[in-house]
Design goal:
Number of strands: 0
Strand content: under 5%
Number of helices: 11
Shape: globular
Largest sheet: none
Structural class: mainly alpha
Distance between the termini: 51 Å
Helix content: over 70%
Amino acid sequence: MTAPVDAGVAAVVRELEDRLAALPAGQDARRAFLGTYARTTTAIGQALAAGVFEDPGWVRRWDVAFVGHFLAAHDADVDGGAVPRPWRLAFDADPALPTLVHLLLELNAHVNYDLPQALLEVVSDDDFDHPVLMAARRRDHERVDTLIASRVAVEGRALPGGARLAARLLAPLDRWSTHRFLPAARRQVWANAVDLHEARRTGPEAYAARIAELDVLTSARIAELLRPGPVLLRLAARGFGVRLPPP
């Protein structure tokens, strides 16, 4: 029996599945990302329905906002429109690259660039003035880390053909790297969100300048991921996240 999924999250899962169904032939990398994302979002919805989070309403709003950033980039790309540079670099990567690399490129754009902005959409400036509230929300943010890390093996088995074989051969390194670099990246995301909050309080120009810095850092990390060589080993050594410099 399938575990129940929170109704609010189920709605965005359907949006992801609709985009997946509409993909034309030859979009294997995007298909892999959309499939992985839909399954992971379903798992978050199941955790919400099971009462895993301290503030389920906030986690639901965050997840909907976060998925919305990807959907906006995906839809704009499909329609031939402008997308943020990190997404453009990820979407335009050589289709011949391994599926695992494409997944990492799109994950980089979504986590490092989109996630701090999505957090700011569901955490007001007033919220930041309440330490108890923010501590609870940070704990829920970290619970998502645990859930994502638990899905590494499952998603490796779901990859198609040669990518699935590569994931199985690299499974020990993959699990170790993911347990290390993804939680570390999300801690940096939280710190970046705090910095963006301070910029937002200063004014629109300061906020726009910090978003531009985040764009540069995320795009540079994509360029690093595209270098020849063992991507997972580089991630294990260098990490996955980016960190805004002091203002």
